[in-house]
Design goal:
Elements: H1 2-57, H2 59-70, H3 73-79, H4 85-98, E1 103-108, E2 113-115, E3 120-123, H5 132-138, E4 144-150, E5 157-167, E6 173-183, H6 187-200, E7 202-207, E8 213-216, H7 237-242, E9 249-255, E10 258-267, E11 272-279, H8 280-325, H9 335-352, E12 356-363, H10 366-373, H11 375-392, E13 398-403, E14 406-412, H12 416-432, E15 450-456, H13 463-479, E16 485-488
Parallel strand pairs: 15-16
Antiparallel strand pairs: 1-2, 1-6, 2-3, 4-5, 5-6, 7-8, 7-11, 9-10, 10-11, 12-14, 12-15, 13-14
Helix pairs in contact: 1-6, 1-8, 10-11, 11-12
């Protein structure tokens, strides 16, 4: 079976490999294209959109900074030697109330006094660790500083403070005006980021310079104090915190067998890092589903094709085998097939010690039938004799067309006497048959006779020897007037 259909198995393997390879190649090309699109287009656009939203947070702090910068009250008062405290107290009260802040203050660089709208609250001391923020602020290169303060429980920024340097006409630092605890409205930003997160299936984080999460829409176990504690993304947390680029930068990592794309961006105005964590598998699911469907359809089609090919080829091979062993006119075994059967029958007869006989049948004057009636009538006679022989012989008997108008019959478990009797009955049946009844080729009665020679197989006798003796008996029947049965001793 393997030798016979081995090439079909190879064809099946080639088709499976080819179709699977094509499907996988298409999948990986699509995956690469999708990844590149996310890295080069989708995530940078999303990053820019969120960055633009965060700039709205800066509108009010920038406005307040501009408001302080446009006022000369603090500068003039400091330059005048900090006289008339009521003047600066009123200024700080107005500044606090106008911006709905918790506290407003002015620190003189000359005297280090901190005024809070009531009077001198304290004097800044470089030796006091609590006052370090002021001395660090003095060294700040920027004209102002904006700080966002987070809720200790939710880590969400809830308020901000503004510290603005006051300089004289020569640009020398003479003091700092500050507002603390100005309420921050995050509702619009939260709603926008939630929408982005749902639409893009991403987790979005805002980190401070230390990597602490100051604002995030991530849910569940992804919420930690520091990005280094977030499962998966912690593998690249050092790269994220170290990023100083103000444009979108792409990173990748794998966690629990799931690929992630990460887009990061530094927001210098806020001192934050924007992080967008994209689960790539969410985007790949449709591609994986298409791949599985393609493989399933391809597998079914390939299997169906192989089944159809198998049965078609099997049918064709059976037809070829039948045509190689069967006479196409009479549907009897041909001589080639009979030789193999006869050899097996000889061996079986020797093992079982049962007699076996061969009968050689020849149609009398068959050439005259072809010459006078035509070859179609001759073919009809051959087919009819084959049909009569099949009906007359036992099921175990074998008959073949030996060649031309000759037939050879093998009678198993049959003595010479019984074989001769069977042959005689067959001869009589043929002689009494009107061959014109089963054809329209002739209108007159058509009678046919046959001559037959019978030989019993002897122990260790060859096939040629048996057929030679049967042929001799047939020749004797022809010499003695035909339409008879003779046997060989």
């Amino acid at each position: 079976m393997l030798k016979k259909y081995g090439w079909l198995i190879w064809l099946f393997v080639i088709l499976v490999i080819g179709f699977t390879g094509t499907s996988l190649a298409s999948f990986f090309i699509s995956k690469t294209t999708l990844t590149n699109t996310l890295n080069e287009q989708s995530l940078p656009v999303l990053n820019d959109s969120i960055y633009a939203e965060t700039q709205r947070l800066m509108l009010r702090p920038n406005f307040i900074s501009g408001q302080i910068a446009s006022s000369t009250v603090a500068r003039d008062w400091l330059l005048n030697g900090e006289e008339e405290p009521e003047q600066i107290n009123q200024y700080l009260k107005d500044l606090k109330n106008k911006n709905n802040a918790l506290t407003s203050y002015l620190i003189s660089d000359q005297t280090r006094h901190l005024y809070n709208g009531v009077g001198i609250a304290k004097t800044m001391n470089s030796a006091d660790p609590i006052d370090n923020w002021y001395f660090q602020l003095r060294n700040l290169k920027a004209p102002y500083e904006i700080n966002f303060d987070s809720d200790p429980l939710t880590h969400d920024p809830t308020s901000f403070s503004v510290n603005y340097k006051v300089a004289d006409t020569n640009g020398k630092l003479i003091g700092i005006v500050g507002l603390f605890g100005i309420k921050l409205n995050l509702d619009n930003l939260k709603g926008t980021i939630d929408a982005y997160q749902q639409n893009f299936h991403s987790n979005i984080y805002f980190l401070n310079k230390q990597g602490d999460i100051v604002f995030s829409t991530a849910k569940g176990n992804d919420r930690h104090d520091n990005i280094s504690g977030v499962n998966g993304i912690k593998n690249i947390s050092a790269q994220i915190v170290a990023n100083q680029k103000n444009t979108a930068t792409s990173l990748e990592y794998n966690a629990d067998g799931i690929s992630h794309l990460v887009s990061i961006r530094n927001i210098p105005d806020l001192g934050w890092q924007l992080v967008i964590d994209k689960n790539l598998d969410d985007e790949l699911k449709p591609l994986v589903n298409v791949l599985l469907v393609n493989l399933a359809v391809g597998g079914v089609m390939t299997l169906t094709l192989m089944v159809l090919a198998f049965f078609t080829i099997k049918k064709y091979q059976n037809k070829l085998e039948k045509s190689a062993t069967t006479d196409t006119l009479t549907n009897l075994l041909n001589r080639h097939a009979f030789d193999f059967i006869f050899q097996q029958a000889l061996l079986d007869a020797e093992r079982s010690r049962q007699p076996m006989c061969a009968v050689l049948l020849d149609i009398d004057f068959f050439k005259k039938i072809n010459d006078k009636q035509g070859h179609q009538v001759g073919d009809h006679v051959l087919k009819e004799i084959a049909a009569i022989a099949k009906r007359s012989l036992r099921e175990s008997d074998v008959i073949c067309r030996w060649g031309g108008e000759e037939f050879l019959i093998l009678l198993k478990n049959c003595t010479l006497e019984k074989a001769t009797s069977i042959a005689e009955n067959l001869r009589a049946t043929i002689a009494n048959n009107d061959f014109s009844r089963t054809t329209d080729l002739t209108r007159t009665r058509l009678s046919i006779t046959v001559s037959m020679g019978v030989a019993e197989c002897r122990d260790s006798e060859t096939e040629d020897s048996v057929f030679e003796r049967a042929d001799q008996a047939l020749a004797q029947a022809k010499e003695n007037g035909r339409n008879s049965v003779y046997f060989s001793e």
